[in-house]
Amino acid sequence: MSGELPPNINIKEPRWDQSTFVGRANHFFTVTDPRNILLTNEQLENARKVVHDYRQGIIPPGLTENELWRAKYIYDSAFHPDTGEKMILIGRMSAQVPMNMTITGCMMTFYRTTPAVLFWQWINQSFNAVVNYTNRSGDAPLTVNELGTAYISATTGAVATALGLNALTKHVSPLIGRFVPFAAVAAANCINIPLMRQRELKIGIPVTDENGNRLGESANAAKQAITQVVVSRILMAAPGMAIPPFIMNTLEKKAFLKRFPWMSAPIQVGLVGFCLVFATPLCCALFPQKSSMSVTSLEAELQAKIQETYPELRRVYFNKGL
């Protein structure tokens, strides 16, 4: 782009129209790009400076619109939208594909013994706990005690669910047995995500008007946000955990894997990774990041406060988390 960069580009919002699935998909393909985890601290801080300076009306000479959007997406990939904190590396959405393909591939390869199920489900739920904490909604800090309690209850409940499901399928066909990790992950997400974000359910998450003016905190908004995240996470895991079992069940009957059984895990990880490259951004895009709900669905006290101050307001907005 030639000429001076205009000062009124709205980089608080995504580059693409978030009212459409295609626009949200484009946004999340950029946010979840695994190459973002290779960026250095210097590159991240430079992106943050460009974004913060532009918001203050300071435009470096020669900065193009594409460079500005690139800086915005680097910034969004590493810094929390509500707190502005730099997020834990493995908790960032750009780490989802490499981390999940490795963990999921191993869960689906080593599922036959109880110790293996216990170990990989614990690894998976520990990783999920980090992701759920990192991508929480709101800016209220968690205390060490709250975080520890949430982690222990979430991982214990999820691992117990996985072991219970594994015990129920001891006498079914190997193909059915391969789907146990997916069933366990789906059930565990329903436990892990609400428990790691339980503070939001207790005290609520910030809700704003369309222009970002904070109106208060709502637990009802938190319930909607967490429900949407649980649904998208389960669907995100589905292709990578539902398609490879059929392929692996066929491959393990072939001479190649009988001759090289050690290739089973890398092939499984690769298949899962291929599915996740597409499933991660597409499932994140199922619901808008800036979610909304009717004022009439809020708590009575907050409704009254909003109607007194903004009588014409019909919808409120909030960051649902990821």
From TrEMBL:
The chain crosses the membrane at residues 175-195, 230-247, 267-287. It is a multi-pass membrane protein. It catalyses: L-cysteine(in) = L-cysteine(out); L-serine(in) = L-serine(out); L-alanine(in) = L-alanine(out). It is found in: Mitochondrion membrane. Keywords: Amino-acid transport, Membrane, Mitochondrion, One-carbon metabolism, Transmembrane, Transmembrane helix, Transport. Coiled coil: none annotated. GO terms for cellular component: mitochondrial inner membrane. GO terms for molecular function: monoatomic ion transmembrane transporter activity. InterPro entries: Mtc (IPR004686). GO terms for biological process: one-carbon metabolic process; serine import into mitochondrion. It comes from the Eukaryota. Amino acid transporter importing serine, an essential substrate of the mitochondrial branch of the one-carbon pathway, into mitochondria. Mitochondrial serine is then converted to glycine and formate, which exits to the cytosol where it is used to generate the charged folates that serve as one-carbon donors. May also transport other amino acids including alanine and cysteine. NCBIfam families: mtc. Belongs to the sideroflexin family. This is Sidoreflexin.
